[in-house]
Amino acid sequence: MSQSSLQGVVVLDISRVLAGPFAAQILGDHGAEVIKIESFYGDDTRGYGPPFVEEDAPYYVGLNRNKKDIALDLSTDEGRDILFRMLGEADVLIENFKLSTWQKWGIDSPSALARQYPRLVHCRISGFGEDGEFGGLPGYDAAVQTLSGLMSINGDPALDPVRIGIPLVDTTTGMNAATGVLLALFERERSGKGQTVEITLFDTALGMLHPHTSNALNGGQSARTGNGHPNIVPYDLFPTKTEKLFVAVGNDRQFALLCQELGKPELAHSALYKTNRDRVCNRDTLKAELTALLAQFDSKALFQRLMDLGVPCAPMLTVEQALQLPHTATRQMSLAMGKYRFTGIPIKLDRTPGAVRLPPPGIGEHSTEVLQRFGFSHEEISGAIHNQTVQQKHPGESA
Question: Most buried residue, 108, 191, 199, 260, by most Cβ within 10 Å?
């Protein structure tokens, strides 16, 4: 296999739950050597089930491949000494501890780590950052969806707002964190210096709220439109003779092709619907027209015909149905490694491809191997593992 893009980059992942582990997994998929450091009790997500794969929940499995694992009690001096020694050889640190936790450990601020390890890219993930009205508060996906306005625009307009059905803020925060780390590593090639990368759930949530934030900042108003789009029509879910079909018309040409295929080409020339601006102003009457027309068609057959014409649409499938599509297999997006099954790598590079090399690790599965890799002697390893194992105190605080 060709060398992956990040081969030789050493990442210490001491984050928990979702955003940080997801960011580290992205880096690991593309060749970084990722060391997951967790307490003897393990990442909380190991228990986020059922279902379970042996002792670990699929929630954990889906976020922690391509990592080696060492168990440390960072609430002890000995555990922190091991971490700080490893930081001397690491390129990247990903963490989501509260600032107060670092201060208990003798680190007054992230800048202190930068001074001690000048080439280190230190990725800090938190709910709200350290300053401002909400600075230092813990962050949770659903709460940030609510506070940022993200939840307010999701769901049926006639009902209460609905939480988006995946931890979208957490996963996008993880993507932003991975991007930030890569930007800092790229810059380090020029300057020779690391830096702190700060990513918050709150900033991420506001940053992803396009076009609602842009509308609100420029004379418009955010709106909950259900499956519809606030700025594009028709862009909605419609019933058909079989499955429901999402029609995602993006321009006037596509709308004309849709009307022709549905047997009513004159709709595209009506003064009510000729341009997208017209269609947005008259969305309710157009939805009624299209609903009546689409009720005569088979969803999957119409999907093929419209897509062949260049009209974006799709039948509504379940997650299970989507995973079973032949195209999913073609794109290598449903994979297995022994007893573990997981989604594939979405970022595909032709010359330096990513790869799944390691299944998600058990707690402390690679402790001896990792300590050897970081230059600890046999005596140091034996003492560290023994002392840490017998202490097994409560895990550290999270973001």
Answer: 199
